[in-house]
């Protein structure tokens, strides 16, 4: 089987796992947060696999990786000679804000912006999905912070929200 076919099978399996996880919501003994975590991981893994399909590589010649630099970069990224895959994923337009939020970001936002209140976070994400402009979305976020300044967590959430409103900047 070729690389592309293998990737397609993996993506299909990840989507099926997501559907199974969604079905588990019918069981009260399964914590919803754990289901959200598993579903988010599957969705992110499927996105990574889809991006791997787009990366051009030479199947016939395996090139040894370059030695690591003496200093570790501040934010390592999955990359190859055709570009930064992570940046490619993080720059794709969004129709669903929750789909653009990684698990660690979700926890950061809940802790820093929503004071640990998961239901406030989910309510805000719903409002952000219904917002009509970037300025409306920013006002929604700031209404939850109770402050007029943008914290690092707010800046990160705004970067994700900007992907829903790319024309607004």
> How far from one another are the termini?
43 Å
Question: What Rg do the Cα atoms give?
Answer: 19 Å
Total individual domains: 2
- Look at the structure and give the mean pLDDT: 76
Q: What's the total helix number?
A: 7
Number of strands: 2
What would you call the shape?
Answer: globular
Structural class: mainly alpha
Q: Strand count, sense and closure of the main sheet?
A: 2 strands, antiparallel
pLDDT below 50 for ≥5 consecutive residues: which ranges?
56-64, 71-83
Q: Roughly what fraction of the amino acids lie in strands?
A: under 5%
Order of strands across the biggest sheet?
Answer: 1-2
How are helices and strands ordered from N to C?
Answer: HHEEHHHHH
Query: Roughly what percent helix?
Result: 55-70%
């Amino acid at each position: 089987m070729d690389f592309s076919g293998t990737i397609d099978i993996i993506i299909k399996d990840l989507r099926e796992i997501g559907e199974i996880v969604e079905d588990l919501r019918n069981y009260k003994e399964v914590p919803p947060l754990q289901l959200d975590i598993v579903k988010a991981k599957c969705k992110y893994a499927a996105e990574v696999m889809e991006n791997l399909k787009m990366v051009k590589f030479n199947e016939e010649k395996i090139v040894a990786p370059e030695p690591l630099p003496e200093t570790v970069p501040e934010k390592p990224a999955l990359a190859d000679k055709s570009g930064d895959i992570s940046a490619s994923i993080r720059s794709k337009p969004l129709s669903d804000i929750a789909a653009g939020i990684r698990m660690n970001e979700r926890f950061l936002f809940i802790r820093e912006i929503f004071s640990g209140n998961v239901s406030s976070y989910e309510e805000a994400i719903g409002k952000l999905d219904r917002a009509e402009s970037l300025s409306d979305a920013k006002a929604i976020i700031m209404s939850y912070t109770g402050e007029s300044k943008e914290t690092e967590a707010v800046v990160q959430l705004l970067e994700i929200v900007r992907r829903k409103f790319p024309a607004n900047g």
